[in-house]
């Protein structure tokens, strides 16, 4: 199975994200445990330069993203990726710590919903978001 080949994004809209990891299997287990999802791993091929772990299936719509073998940014220097959580943040936060990450902020309310900052086992900055 290969990566999606088309997107319906318009100029300036987010369409893709990548999260670097020093250990794909550990990262897959972390995100599956925290988000309560099943991720899909695909292996290096002619049209994919390395193994990656996908956040959703190729037949779904919206923004695609994956975990790839790479060096995470130093603390405080990288981007923050925000991922939607369908579970209440208060239920997700303990799973972060149990799975090897850290909760680094309280729940922050904004007009569009609520979010919390965490770091994954590699130290990547992640926001978990509940939409209103």
UniProtKB/TrEMBL annotation:
Pfam families in the cross-refs: Glyoxalase
Residue span(s) of domain VOC: 13-131
Record PROSITE patterns: VOC
Q: What is this protein called?
A: Glyoxalase
Which species? Answer: Ahrensia marina
């Amino acid at each position: 199975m290969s990566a999606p080949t088309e997107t319906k994004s318009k100029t300036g809209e987010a369409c893709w994200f990548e999260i670097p990891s020093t250990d794909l299997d550990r990262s897959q287990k972390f995100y599956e445990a925290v988000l309560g999802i099943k991720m899909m791993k695909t292996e290096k091929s002619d049209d994919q330069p390395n193994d990656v772990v996908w956040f959703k299936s190729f037949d779904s719509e919206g923004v695609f993203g994956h975990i790839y073998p790479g060096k995470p940014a130093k603390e405080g220097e990288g981007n923050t990726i925000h991922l939607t959580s369908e579970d209440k943040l208060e239920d997700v936060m303990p799973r972060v710590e149990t799975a090897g990450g850290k909760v680094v902020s309280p729940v922050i309310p904004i007009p569009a919903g609520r979010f919390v900052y965490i770091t994954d086992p590699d130290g990547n900055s992640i926001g978990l978001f509940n939409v209103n």
